[in-house]
Every structure is written in C-alpha cells, then in structure tokens.
C-alpha cells in the first residue's frame, strides 16, 4: 500500500527546487541588464492579431481541453484498485494545494504593480503568469502521481496504462501549445513567465515532499493541518492585497465555492483513507 519515494526522485525534486530558487535572482539580474526585452509583450493584444496557430482552437478552448484531458487521466489512475483511498486523497489534496498556490499568485501580483501585457484591462495586475504556474505545476505533479499509482498497481492492464499514457501525451501537447501562446500571443512578458514558472516549480516541490515522501514525518492529519494553514494564509493575503475596487475580483465566488467543495471531498477521502489504514486486510 505504500507509495514509496525512491532516492532518484529526491534528487529530481532537489534539482527542481534549486532551479526555482535560481530562476528568480537570474530574472532580476537580466531585467536590470536588459529591462526592455524582459518586460516586452511579443504583441499588443488590444491592437494586433497573433499569427495563425498550428492547432485550430481558440486560446481558451485549448486551455480547457488540456485541463479536461489531464483530469480524465488522473481519475483513470485514481480508480486503479490498489490503494484507491490513498489515491483519491492525494488527488484532492494536490488540487487544493494548487488552488492555494493560485490564490497566492493573485495576491503577489498586486504589490508587483506590473500591468504589462494586460491588454485592454489597464488596471489589472498581470505580473505573474498563471498559465505557466499551472501547467508546470500540473506537469510535474501529474507525472509524480502517475508514477506512484502505477507503482502501487504493478499488475494494471496494458490497456489502462496505454490510455493513461495517451491522455498524458495529449495534455502535454495542449500544455506546450498553451505556454507557447501565452508568450507569442502577448498575454505575458518573459519576466512574468519566469515568475509563474518559479512559483509552479516551487509549489510542486513542497507538495511532493509533504504528500508523496513517506518518511517526511507528515501524518494524514498533519498534512491536513498544513494544507489548512496554507489555504487560510493564501486567502488572507489575497483579500488584503488584491485591488478589488480597481481591478475586480481575481478569484471569483464560484472559485471559492469550488475550493470549499474540494475541502468537503478531501474530508470524506480522509475518512475512507483512515478506515483503509486501520483495516489493511480489507483494503487488500
């Protein structure tokens, strides 16, 4: 039932954490050396049209397609028979973790006072790329989750493995295309992209240690407390820092309702996870 954490992935996580920490001062240094290039928008969206895309889908449709494909793959892996309560708990936990990360992202945008590439929304803070944060976080976390699920289910049918691999590949194509458009369609500057990528990598590394590393010392309840503290802090910063009157909400009421709903699902998953841990023979 263990989702063990091999030493090779510890090395990968440490490398990613180092990359995230290095990327921020490197971006600041490059901005001072060449501020025009790092802060420039590839096109002015409010004045120019982007070149015809290779994938004939609107930007928002491409993004949504990629998200739905990823969720289909993750649910398919979660429903594998062995360690299912643990898998559903982990999937919901990771979703809430990113929700908190995105709320931090919105809160941190405000003090940056960077309105570049915001299109017609001149008063909307745009200093961190949410697309880069999201897709980089999900790419690493989904791969980590898939690896754990297949390790816990070594006898999974080749058909399920092939379906999961195909869905993950489609997500990769959609994700890369979305990240390409994020810059070349003028949604974010290079600096904003760098900040978003750093936040996505850092959020994944912390989540990986808390959720997937069995010898981290985090029990189920300690993980819940850590997530609660993280969510509460992110919401507090968002409501204190975000310029609601000037820019409108960055986190909609529907997003907050969905966030609360995920907490309910997580608590239900916790109940079944604890029951499975107390009765391992029944889980087997």
TrEMBL record:
The keyword Nucleus does not apply. Keywords: Membrane, Transmembrane, Transmembrane helix. The keyword Membrane applies. The chain crosses the membrane at residues 62-80, 87-108, 128-146, 158-180, 192-212, 224-241, 253-273. This is Phosphatidic acid phosphatase type 2/haloperoxidase domain-containing protein. It comes from Gracilariopsis chorda.
